[in-house]
Every structure is written in structure tokens, then in C-alpha cells.
Amino acid sequence: MECLRLSGLLLIHTTHLKGTPKQHLHDKVATDLRETLEQVKTAIESSQTVAWMEIWVSFLGAHVSTNRGAFHLNCISRASELLGLEDWIEVRTWLNRFPYIDEEFDTPFQRIWTPAWSLRGMPRDES
Question: Is the residue at 50 inside a domain?
């Protein structure tokens, strides 16, 4: 699936290209990822299937984006609701199903989780 390929690229860029100017790569791949996620969400009928993958790629997208933006936070919020994830420990356990490097992602992903959690139950602006 294209979303997983793009999230894999983001993973490689964030973990193995340290010290290399790469924000332009992050912005390009994050934009491609967003466009692909939007297509996937309209193409797949099972919202739980989308949530399974969406939470992982949205954390990566938010992590590398220059601004967190409402799009990724809303995706994380919605996916965590659909998957029944209630706190950071449950989210972290879920994220460990994917390529997840504790030392690299724990602190920044937890910082992303806090505002995403606060969006639960609120109307979502996906822009």
C-alpha cells in the first residue's frame, strides 16, 4: 500500500539521514502521504482498516511536518477513537506493531499525542 511505502520513506529520512538537510524531502513525502491518505479514506469502506494504518502514518507525518497542522492531529484523534486507544501507553503499544524506534520517537510522538487526544469528540476540520 502506498501509504505504508511513504511512511517507510519518512522513517528512513528521520532516522538515517541525521545531519543532512532534508526538510524539503519531509515536506514532499508528507504532502504525498496526505494526498494518498485522503484517497485511501474515500476508497476503503472499513474505517477500522483505515485507522489501523492511519494512526502510524499520521504520527510520522506530524513528526516531520514543519507545522503539526490539523490534518495529522485529526487523523490520529479519529484513528485512536476507532481503535479504542485511550491513553499514551495504549497508543505506544499500538505503534510498536510498526517500525518504531523507542529512543527516536517516544518523546516527540507523545508530544503529538497530547493535542490529538484533546480533539476527541470535537468536530474535525481536515484541512
Answer: yes
Please count the structural domains in the chain.
Answer: 1
Indicate whether 75 belongs to any domain.
yes
Which residue range(s) make up the domain with 87? 2-14+22-118
Nearest partner of 75 among 47, 94, 54, 97, judged by Cα: 54
Rounded to an integer, what distance in angstroms lies between the CA atom of residue 101 and that of residue 96? 8
In a domain, residue 77? The reply is yes
pTM of the shown model: 0.63
| pLDDT tens digit sequence for 68-101 | 678 889 989 989 998 899 999 999 998 887 777 7
Residue 28 placed within a domain: yes
Nearest to 95 by CA among 69, 121, 62, 127: 62
